[in-house]
Amino acid sequence: MQHIPKLFAPDNAIVTGESTLADLPGIPLSFGHAYMTLLVCISGSAYFTLNFKDHVVRPNDVLVLAEDTIALLKRRSRCFRVYFCLMPKSFAAEVAYQLPNPLFMFLHDHPHCVPAAKDKPLIAMWLKQMQDITQHCPTYQRIMLRNQLQNFFLKIAEQMPGGQSGSREFSRKEMFSWRFWELVGKHCTRHRGVKFYADALSITPFYLSQLTKEFFNHTPKELIDRQLTLEIKALLSYSNLAIGQIAYKLHFADASYLCRYFKRQTGLSLSCYRQDGEAGNK
Predict the structure, then answer these.
(1) Where is the HTH araC/xylS-type domain positioned along the sequence (predicted)?
(2) Which of 61, 129, 136, 150 keeps 20 to 30 A from 242, CA to CA?
(3) Does the pTM of the predicted model rise above 0.90?
(4) Average of per-residue pLDDT across 5-10
(5) Sign of the C-alpha dihedral, residues 111, 114, 119, 125?
């Protein structure tokens, strides 16, 4: 295939495949509704500009592109080919759920990852596993892809250069933003109001909103709700707790309130989510 398809599918769709990107040199890359795009070079080479910095991409190199990454393919060799995985927001959030915060900072600054020579065979095996899952595993495909991608990113996290996430000084705004995200991960099940986090950072809710819109493209409340929704999904998927017990564990007033909250965030009822393959396809 020559083109990466645009993600016009529903929000929970994941699109994978291979492409030559043959018609894209000189054109800013656009991946439709993908929230995050993973590209792995299979063959050939290409010159990319990522956030205005030039990169030479060779076989087994990895590009991790967020929705706000400015990516331009400048030129490519005739045999250039990539594997792509286009992730919608809901799925990207599930993948990121258990990943360490320093990894996000690293990938933000280093969207082009070059593997060590000893790891190149591992990437080839990983690609084969991804292809096998998408072609032959329809029942549990979503959860298997999520696990594969989490392992892939955790491998990058394991091999980040020592102190890399702190190799440059972060601005005051950046530090506030990442600190907020850490607090959300620790406290979202008990504290769902923006004021709690603003107070913890000793800033105003308005300033916090400005920061998260600048660095995460979302309001603080949207980020809190997204993380809490992932916590609910995890309990629905991996525990046998009754709905009332989940409500109690996550500090909701009652099961009814939890049901309304989850329905508002996902468009699904708690029972439907749990029943549909233990949420494996949600």
Answers:
(1) 178-276
(2) 150
(3) no
(4) 41
(5) positive
